[in-house]
Write a structure and sequence with these properties.
Number of strands of chain B: 0
Structural class of chain A: mainly alpha
Structural class of chain B: mainly alpha
Distance between the termini of chain B: 37 Å
Number of strands of chain A: 0
Oligomer: heterodimer
Chain lengths: 181, 441
């Protein structure tokens, strides 16, 4: 049961990663198309700027569960590294609960925001007049799945499936880990 | 409760939450919501979702994933190896040529990728074993690569500058230009120190017992040249006012991926997925911190903490250079623990009014701040580059790598002092090429 839940959440988060990557890829293509139309054909662009911005915002929220799954959200892990195993466990538990509480609350708040855009039929102020509930929907969806991933992380931590902060006894630096600028 | 007491509570709680190991984005978000609830009640939550979204709804931010993708495409390819080999073939007979080619490759690769750890890993993989093979001391071989890697966030295009530009509404193009001369100077300082220390320790660089032919030298150029031309092209488009940073970066990203596919045959779906995956992970991480930092900034402003702090500092009538020294100390200590992106996004909105009130140029301060962030990358306890180099040369103890980086930390501090004495080093190029107007985005 628990393993099944963790497996399903993991697959959903991975799917979110692929979707977010596709959105970023699409944004690159659209930027190139926009540059071509604007600077080569010397014509005006209407929807491209909005589309690219909305895509990247959506990629941020929807890609967030995948980034959490792959431990890509940067944190300050100095203290956890120097603590003993027991203290590290409790610290990890506290930090996961704080982050989970934030994600759950944000899911509710962003859902209300989306609902308002849906019921009041908000449109963007640009020439495109995009229906705003579409880009806004990425927030509750992404943060909701992020909350699920945090619940899975909490279970992994509480049941000993994963070490606190992912710190294994003989930790080595992964050169393929996300780059911290 | 007075703003001073509120500010102290916010500072202490922020430090505790960040040091707890919670992701910076969610930690900052949680703190913001908690203090809004505490001081303004439940009603204040009505604007949270909108503020969080609005923090990301800016076309300028599009440049971040685009520049990240440029770096990921180049970083996924063997371009770093080719760059290193090309410089080595041209410089191998010069005294200390290996040092110059290592640090030179770091500087150029930094310009190509904009990422310090990527630069450190790509050049270090070739540079460190080669330096050690030719008898360079371990601390010099590892320390110089750690330091060379940090140039990634100073030499444009730099994501650190983009973040600073967005947070303070300073021209990104101007910031990029301002990083060029200090970046080249710092590279020179690193080279000078490295050459001096190996000479002082009695190490005499001797030419290897082989020679590269002219044909071999020229053969090394074609693979690297297109990438360099793209970066130069992006810079030209940016500064020529032909396109916005996001547009220039978008086309640059597409061209870099295309070149990686054509030149290095990275057309395997797994290779392309790696580029997209790395881009997604890093971009999402940065953009999430930006959204949370905007919320954090909103909380600080709504509690009048930013304004109170700026006013309090202005009222002390402290000498502006004492103030600058204190700010540098604060950034330096923060950089020891907190990643650069988080520091810039959290502190810029607070520091910006202070440095403006003190009469400092925000573009110049962006460079100072970035060099401070560079120090954090090679200084314990976080010092990301140190651990990357340790992974490349695991038989060199971490302590030895850390000792090796100390002289380069001093070089960076010296560079900050030089920039304080001669701010024109940073401001001359942007003022010359873009005119002396400052502050416009």
């Amino acid at each position: 049961m628990i393993d099944g839940f963790i497996w399903i959440v993991k697959r959903i988060s991975q799917l979110c990663g692929v979707f977010a990557a596709a959105l970023i890829g699409a944004a690159v293509v659209i930027v190139c198309q926009m540059v071509f139309i604007r600077y080569v054909l010397n014509q005006n662009t209407i929807w491209q700027t909005d589309f690219v911005t909305y895509s990247l915002v959506a990629a941020t929220f929807i890609g967030s569960p995948y980034v959490l799954l792959t431990r890509g959200h940067v944190n300050v892990d100095v203290l956890p590294h120097y603590l003993g195993r027991g203290a590290r466990y409790w610290l990890a538990l506290a930090s996961v609960i704080v982050a989970l509480a934030f994600c759950l609350l944000m899911t509710v708040l962003t859902f209300n925001f989306w609902h308002e855009a849906w019921t009041k039929k908000w449109l963007s102020e640009s020439m495109w007049r995009a229906r705003l509930w579409i880009p806004y929907s990425s927030m509750p969806v992404g943060l909701g799945i992020l909350s699920l991933q945090y619940i899975a992380d909490l279970i992994n931590l509480a049941t000993g499936r994963e070490p606190p902060f992912g710190i294994k006894p003989a930790e080595v630096v992964d050169l393929d880990s996300p780059e911290v600028i | 409760m007075s703003p001073a007491v509120q500010g102290t509570i916010v500072l202490v709680v922020t430090l505790i939450v960040l040091l707890s190991g919670a992701p910076v984005a969610f930690g900052l978000g949680a703190i913001s919501i908690a203090f809004l609830l505490l001081f303004h009640g439940v009603d204040s939550l009505q604007v949270v979702a909108e503020t969080f979204y609005a923090g990301l709804q800016d076309f300028t931010l599009v440049s971040i994933p685009m520049f990240v993708m440029m770096g990921a495409a180049i970083g996924s390819s063997p371009a770093g190896k080719d760059l290193y080999e090309a410089l080595d073939r041209w410089l191998y007979r010069l005294p200390g040529g290996l040092v110059i080619s290592n640090l030179g490759a770091c500087a150029i690769f930094a310009a190509l990728t904009g990422s310090s750890p990527a630069c450190c890993a790509a050049i270090g993989k070739m540079g460190i074993p080669e330096m050690r093979r030719r008898g360079y001391p371990d601390d010099v071989a590892t320390g110089s690569i750690c330091a060379g890697g940090t140039l990634g966030i100073l030499i444009p295009p730099s994501i650190t500058f983009i973040l600073y530009g967005i947070a303070t509404e300073t021209s990104i193009g101007r910031l990029f230009l301002a990083g060029v001369v200090p970046g080249v100077m710092l590279t020179g300082l690193f080279m000078l120190w490295t050459l001096f220390i190996i000479w002082k320790r009695g190490f005499r660089s001797h030419a290897p017992d082989f020679r590269y032919s002219w044909k071999e030298k020229f053969q090394s150029i074609p693979k690297i040249l297109p990438f360099v031309l793209i970066i130069v092209g992006v810079m030209y488009v940016l500064y020529g006012g032909v396109a916005t940073p996001s547009e220039a970066a978008g086309v640059g990203a597409a061209l870099c991926v295309t070149l990686a596919v054509v030149i290095y045959r990275l057309w395997n779906p797994a290779d392309l997925w790696k580029i997209l995956r790395d881009t997604t992970r890093e971009s999402v991480m940065i953009l999430m911190i930006i959204a949370a930092a905007v919320l954090f900034g909103y909380m600080l402003t709504s509690l009048y903490l930013t304004q109170t702090l700026a006013q309090a500092i202005a009222d002390t009538h402290v000498n502006k250079w004492v103030l600058m020294a204190l700010i540098n100390l604060f950034l330096l200590v923060s950089g020891f623990f907190i990643p650069p992106a988080a520091i810039i996004l959290m502190t810029s909105p607070i520091l910006y009014p202070i440095i403006r009130a003190a009469g400092f140029d925000p573009v110049w301060f962006g460079v100072i701040m970035t060099i401070n962030m560079e120090i954090g990358l090679i200084h314990p306890p976080v010092g990301l580059n140190i651990y990357i180099v340790n992974a490349i040369a695991p038989d060199v103890p971490v302590q030895r790598v850390m000792w090796g980086t100390i002289p380069y930390v001093i070089c960076m501090m010296l560079q900050i002092v030089i920039l304080c004495v001669f701010p024109e080093i940073a401001t001359w190029l942007p003022d010359t090429l873009m005119g002396p107007i400052i502050g416009a985005k």
